[in-house]
Amino acid sequence: MITAKKFLWLPFLVVACAAPPEPVPDTQPHLGIRWVRDSAEYVAVATQVYRTAENALPGMVADQDWSALPYQRDAAHLPPAVILDIDQTSLTNPVFQAYIWREPPFTEERLNDWSAAHDATPTPGINAYAEKAKRHDVSLFFITNRECRPNAESSEPCPQKAVVIQDLLEAGLPASAENVFLAAEREGWGKEKRARFEWIAENYRVIQLIGDDLGDFIPCVRRRPVEPCTVGATIDNRFEATAEYGDYWGAGWYILPNPMHGSWTSVR
C-alpha cells in the first residue's frame, strides 16, 4: 500500500530520472541562402532581370546621349559598355555561403580558396545577356570588391585576379585582365566602386549597371564608411538614395536579389 508521503515523492523521482532532451543541431542554412540555392523562384527572378536588361540593350546602344552614370557627360563618341558586379550578379555561390554559415567566419582568403577549388556557377540569365551584348558590340566590364592582396604563395601583386578571371571563364563569360577589376588593384581603387566606374567611363559610354547590392549603383551606402565616404549609411538614408535615383531602376540600373549578405545587413 502506498502511503500519502510515498505518493507525493513519486513525481519528483520521475523528474529527477528523466534526462534533458538533446539539442537538435540546425544544419540548414538560413532561409536567404536556401532560397537562392533551392528555389525555382530565384531562377525566375534572376532570368527576368537579365531579360529586361537584354531587351533594353539595342535602344540604349542607339541612343548616343544615354548613359547609366548620372555624372557622365559628352560620351556620344565613345563605344558602349556595361558594368557588372561579380558575386551574386555574374556568378552565384549559395553553396559557399552555406558552408561559411556552418563554419564561420567569412574571409576573402576562404572565398578565394573555395573558388579555386570549385567550378563557378553563372547567375541564371547572364549567358544569354552576354551573347546579346556581344552581338551589339557592347563591352562587358566585371567589377568586384574581392581585394588584391599579395601573399607568400605567389609572386604576383594580385594573385586573386587570376582566380576571379578563371571563375568567369568557367561560367562561360568573356573575362580577361583587361575587363576584370578588383578592389585595391590600382592606387585609389578602394571598396567604393566609383573610382573604377570613372576609369571605365573615360573610354566607354556606360549604358547599364547590373549588381546585387545598392553599393553597385550608389556610393556611401555602408554603415561603416570607406574612402571617399565620411559618414556611415542608415536604413533611412539608403531609402532616400534609392528614391533619389528612382528613374534609373529598371531603366539602365538592374538589381538582382541577394538575401544572403550585403551592405543592407549592416545598417540600422
Radius of gyration: 24 Å
Main sheet specs: 5 strands, parallel
Task: Tell me the fraction of residues in β-strands, as a range.
Answer: 5-15%
> What would the average pLDDT be, to the nearest integer?
90
Please write the string of helix (H) and strand (E) elements: HHHEHHHEHEHEHE
Shape annotation: globular
SSE class: alpha/beta
Q: Please count the helical segments.
A: 9
CATH architecture: 3-Layer(aba) Sandwich
Say which CATH homologous superfamily is assigned.
HAD superfamily/HAD-like
> What is the CATH C-level name?
Alpha Beta
Q: What's the arrangement of strands in the largest beta sheet?
A: 3-2-1-4-5
Ranges where pLDDT stays below 50 over 5 or more residues in a row are 1-18
The total number of structural domains is: 1
The portion of residues assigned to helices is 25-40%
Distance between the termini: 66 Å
The count of β-strands is 5
CATH topology: Rossmann fold
Features:
single chain; 268 residues; alpha/beta; Rossmann fold; 5-stranded parallel β-sheet; 9 helices; 39% helix
What's this, in brief?
The protein is built from nine helices and five strands. The protein is α/β, with parallel strands linked by helices.
Q: Describe it for me?
A:
The chain is an alpha/beta fold. The chain has helices at 4-17, 31-38, 40-62, 94-102, 108-117, 126-135, 159-170, 194-201, 235-244, and strands at 80-85, 139-147, 180-183, 205-211, 253-255. The protein has one domain: HAD superfamily/HAD-like (Rossmann fold). The protein has a 5-stranded parallel sheet, with helices on both faces. α2 crosses α3, α2 (31-38) runs antiparallel to α4 and α3 (40-62) packs parallel to α6. The protein is globular. Mean pLDDT is 90; it is low at 1-18.
